[in-house]
Design a protein that fits this description.
This protein is of the alpha+beta class and 744 residues long. The protein has 16 helices and 37 strands. Strand 31 and strand 32 form a beta hairpin.
């Protein structure tokens, strides 16, 4: 149902497209309307608004909210979220509302082909103002031909390329206020674009909005001629706010990068075709402030080039991400492990802008499904991701093909669909399986059976298609990215695919039982057939696999095909052969430390966690990382930077180890039987080597805060836990650990 009806979609009637416009886009339109309240007591005032593109709403010169980049990233052909703003405290007798719009995801550059206008040709807005009075009367103002539109100071904007702001072109800011007479030229009636958007569904927003969540103050680290480099001291995602004073026409170009070259210059090769540059042009005279409105960058360093004369008075970095509440904390006696956890959290912050992206800096920034499913368990501990993943699960559903296939990215980007199997590889093992994994993990953490039931139809549809594509339950080797970015240990793709097929089918059967779905027996039987086929083709008589890699054994065990006892000898051999180091990539890493602990080799798990050598989490941390890298060796002191074609320094996938920190190190284990933390088991795995002598943390569940601390002193092991009384609790600590329990 279109709750904005009968509001119209409005656009600026633009000039004929030129090569310049096609490449860089158009100036951002500002849509304006005045309205007056009736002469009676007002009960409430709301602004309902959305855009094809992104927008910022103002009422009487004040932002309607602190949100940015709204309405977020979806497949705009299928679903467009609309936002509801409470503007009761902003309205007066006479009022002005302004909607400024930019290209965003809908009209800006997107995808591997670097095309603009993937969804629609121009940005559009649609809005309704709903005024309710104390006597019950309702007044509505909609977007129609009573509005006026013109451009202002934002000359162009793009997620990949950056923003150009020219204060010389700025209008008198009185146009944000009532009583403006449109005497400045250029204001015109908007054109209707309703026919563009006939098939997209308008739905009220689900997830929290993108906001500025932290502010960083940089340090000036170098100055040469007209170029200065600033260090935020943290790889972050967002924008820079500047206060500057200078002469008219002075140009400031801000280029962003994650690392520096050895000579101290900005490293930008890994951005590929993303220019990631903001340009500010001064009006001159008084002190001026610049802040990009419709873009974001992934960076630690900012290079400022000045053409003309200007003094930078102040600079801050505004960290932006979907406004998710922090729900956890982890700390231990090893400062390196604490840095690893901090890097994971900052990686999540940087990649949770409306969708869980792969990276926030280069010409990609897409919702890769494999990355999303591998990390979701960690993410849901670190932050309250309930609504965030509800929205992303809807993105998965919106991206599902008619036959049930799920592609490599969600939301879909249209111009990558027809000729690019890389981005839209249907039924790719570990990626498309997000349709089974994320709904299950969401249920486990938040316990919403009704929502699980609503999504189960789409999961079953995907599994049935995978069965259809399989040969006697052996899933095809392709399409498949394999155990992405492993350490020279490629896992046989057919083995990996079939293991994931079993893993997802098993989860689907569980979800059917949980929701009382009548198809539970079908998927339980299918799982047994897949497991039998896997054992027949890939498991030798001595319980070794035809592909002898860490990931192969991890997935076979995680899928329940092989037991811990069956995999232990061969799996431990893969670890010892690698010098007790990991060799896993994206798909194996989530299961590595949990499996090692479950095998009774907890000391080795801590050894791998705390390692400062390559490959491992600590290696990047000791080399200055403040987020998780895409590669285990994105940078090495002897070889320099990794492959520039794919070398993000902010990529959360390998950070799925934080789930282990809470479930195993702290021992906070949710139980499926009491999903949503109605029932948990406290089963801590303390470091037997004594290297980590204490650990502590908490998780704010839907049932309340669960706090844990353990320590070892002179061989004495103690475990303290504080758990809400409403949680059904089982304690399963080692016998040599003294447990102190508080219920509140």
């Amino acid at each position: 149902m279109n709750t904005l009806y009968p509001a119209h979609w409005l656009s600026l009637a633009g000039e004929r497209d030129t090569e310049q416009i096609e490449r860089y886009g158009k100036p951002c339109p500002c849509f304006r309307r005045e309205f007056s309240l009736l002469d009676k007591p007002l009960k409430s005032a709301e602004l309902w608004a959305t855009a094809i593109g992104v927008f910022k709403a103002y009422v009487n010169g004040e932002p309607a909210d602190g949100d940015y980049m709204s309405p977020g990233f979806t497949d705009y052909r299928v679903r467009i979220p609309w936002l509801k703003y409470d503007i009761t405290g902003l309205v007066k007798k006479d009022n002005a509302v302004v909607l400024v719009a930019g290209d965003g995801w809908a009209a800006g550059y997107m995808g591997n082909r670097m095309l603009r206008r993937n969804y629609y040709r121009d940005v559009s807005v649609c809005a309704k103002i709903v005024l309710k009075y104390m006597d019950g009367e309702k007044q509505e103002i909609i977007t129609d031909d009573a509005w006026r539109v013109d451009t202002d100071e934002i000359m162009r904007t793009d997620n990949y390329m950056g923003e150009v702001v020219d204060h010389r072109a700025a209008k008198n800011k009185r146009f944000y206020l009532p009583g403006y007479d449109y005497s400045e030229g250029g204001w015109q009636k908007p054109v209707y674009r309703d026919y563009w958007i006939n098939y997209a569904r308008l739905s009220e927003e689900v997830e929290p909005r993108i906001k500025v969540m932290h502010t960083l103050v940089p340090e000036k680290i170098s100055h040469s001629g007209r170029k200065t480099i600033y260090d935020m001291k943290q790889n972050m995602v967002g924008v820079v706010r500047l206060r500057v004073k200078g002469t008219a026409g002075t140009v400031l170009r801000l280029r962003y990068g994650e690392m520096l070259e050895k000579d101290g210059t900005l490293y930008v090769e890994n951005l590929r075709r993303a220019e990631s540059t903001d340009t500010f042009i001064l009006k001159g005279g008084e002190e001026e402030e610049f802040r990009p409105l419709f873009t974001f960058h992934g960076f630690r360093y900012v290079e400022v080039r000045v053409t003309g004369s200007a003094e930078i008075i102040a600079m801050t970095g505004e960290v932006m991400y979907t406004a998710l509440e922090k729900t956890a904390e982890f700390e231990c006696s090893d400062s390196l492990v604490n840095r690893i956890y901090s890097n994971i959290v900052w990686g999540q912050r940087g990649n949770f802008l409306s969708v869980p992206t792969d990276c926030p800096q280069r010409d990609e920034r897409l919702g890769w499904t494999g990355d999303a499913q591998i990390f979701c368990g960690s993410a849901m501990f670190n932050m309250d991701c309930d609504k965030f993943y509800r929205k992303y699960i809807q993105d998965l559903i919106d991206s599902q093909y008619g036959d049930g296939a799920i592609g490599g990215i969600a939301p879909c980007v249209p111009h990558t669909e027809s000729d690019d199997t890389e981005y839209h590889a249907p039924c790719a093992a570990g990626w498309s399986d997000a349709m089974a994994v994320i709904p299950y993990e969401h249920y486990l953490m938040y316990g919403d059976r009704k929502f699980l039931k609503e999504t189960l139809y789409f999961t079953k549809k995907y599994i049935r298609l995978t069965e259809k594509w399989s040969d006697d339950c052996i899933r095809p080797a392709e399409p498949n990215w394999g155990d992405w970015l492993n350490v020279d240990c490629n896992t046989d793709k057919s083995l990996l695919s079939t293991a994931y097929f079993a893993f997802s089918t098993r989860l689907t059967a569980k979800m059917c039982r949980i929701t009382g779905d009548e198809d539970a027996a079908e998927f339980e039987a299918l799982y047994k057939r897949i497991a039998a086929a896997f054992r027949k083709k890939f498991v030798k008589k001595d319980n070794t696999l035809t592909c002898h890699t860490q990931t192969a054994y991890l997935l076979a065990c995680a899928a329940g095909i092989m037991t811990l006892d069956e995999i232990k000898p061969a799996f431990m051999d893969t670890l010892h052969a690698a010098g007790d180091k990991l060799t896993t990539g994206f798909l194996g890493i989530k299961f590595l430390l949990p499996t090692i602990c479950n095998l009774g080799e907890t000391q080795l798990a801590y050894k791998i966690l705390c390692s400062r050598e390559y490959p491992g989490w600590g290696y990047s941390a000791v080399n200055g990382a403040t987020t998780i890298w895409e590669r285990w060796n994105s940078y090495t002191a002897d070889k320099g930077f990794g492959d520039v074609g794919m070398n993000s320094f902010n990529h959360y996938s390998l950070g799925s180890v934080s789930e282990w920190m809470f479930k195993y190190c702290l021992g906070i284990m949710p139980e499926e039987e009491g999903a949503g933390f109605k029932k948990i088991t406290l089963r801590p795995f303390l470091d037997p080597s004594g290297k980590i002598t204490w650990a502590k943390g908490y998780y704010d569940s839907k049932m309340g805060r669960i706090s844990v601390k353990w320590k070892t002193t002179d061989g004495k092991k103690e475990y303290f836990a504080s758990v809400p009384k409403g949680i059904e609790l089982t304690v399963d600590a080692p016998k040599d650990v003294k447990v102190t329990l508080e219920r509140f």
